[in-house]
Design goal:
The chain is built from 5 helices and 13 strands. By secondary structure, the chain is α+β, with helices and mostly antiparallel strands. The chain is globular. The chain binds zinc ion.
Length: 271
């Protein structure tokens, strides 16, 4: 097997790094006895996704580590971006209703997309962002135009969670797909729970399919692309457990689906 390279700068020297920043632990209620579960489901056209495997691991979900970026990226531009958005995340976790300006909203969006790009690498064969776009993000920090980000507040029983659906979408079941760039999947939805914050990301590289319209996310706020000058966190609606689950569990039905996978990381309820 060839040596794995950093997904962003393409250099060697990968380091195992925490997915969520360490300082998050000061704001979330975690315990050494916490556990988390990884579940992988997959399915073909019109079939229900079947559970492929389930892994139970010790440790809180926010302590999860990935090995896909080099130490230089991780401790360099990635950690700088993380430091810049720290006040925003801390305000959300403390339930302080601050007002963000458009620059802060964009920075926050870039941080979310950076997390999505790292997390999707954990599941080989299901990535959606092509290498060329990872490289552009590294060079310019620009978010690919097929991404949309929605946020709200949440009142579910979990304070951390991650769920990702990836799929192959085309305008017809058997017809041609968009330029797949050598990849198997061209669309995904990614849900994160971070304390009271619920983040939902949608990307579809088939330009004629507008998943965010199909999903009707009117109870969430679209923060990327963001058209206004400011956003007060007070304006975010609280979604209950049922609605959060419903949104996380959604996958495209109106458009033609060729295959899909679900990757779920769930925090255990503390006993
Ligand atoms: Zn790197």
């Amino acid at each position: 097997m060839g040596q794995k390279l950093c997904i962003f700068c393409q250099n060697s020297g990968l380091s195992k790094e925490h997915f969520w920043p360490n300082w998050l632990r000061d704001y979330l209620d975690t315990s050494p006895s916490d556990k988390h579960t990884t579940e992988v489901y997959s399915g073909e056209v019109n079939s229900k996704a079947e559970l492929e495997n389930k892994l139970e691991r010790s440790g809180n979900l926010i302590t999860k580590k990935f090995r896909v970026v080099c130490a230089k990226c991780n401790s360099g531009w990635m950690s700088k971006l993380e430091e810049k958005i720290k006040p925003i995340i801390v305000s959300v976790l403390k339930n302080q209703d601050i007002t963000l300006n458009s620059d802060e909203i964009l920075l926050f969006s870039k941080w979310i997309i950076m997390k999505v790009m790292v997390a999707e690498q954990n599941h080989q064969g299901t990535q959606v962002t092509p290498n060329s776009d990872l490289k552009s993000f590294y060079d310019t920090n620009e978010i690919p135009d097929y991404y949309r980000i929605y946020i709200s507040k949440q009142r579910s029983s979990h304070h951390s969670g991650y769920q990702r659906h990836s799929c192959t979408l085309g305008l017809s079941k058997t017809g041609p797909l968009c330029d797949m760039g050598g990849m198997e999947r061209n669309a995904h939805t990614v849900s994160f729970l971070l304390g009271p914050l619920f983040i939902y990301v949608i990307a579809c590289r088939e330009q004629n399919i507008f998943l965010w319209r199909e999903f009707k996310l009117n109870h969430m706020k679209c923060v990327y692309p963001y058209k206004k000058k400011t956003l007060n966190l007070k304006s975010l609606k609280y979604l209950d457990n049922r609605l959060v689950r419903k949104i996380c569990g959604r996958y495209p039905v109106q458009v033609k689906r060729q295959a899909h996978d679900i990757r779920r990381l769930q925090q255990h309820d503390r006993s």
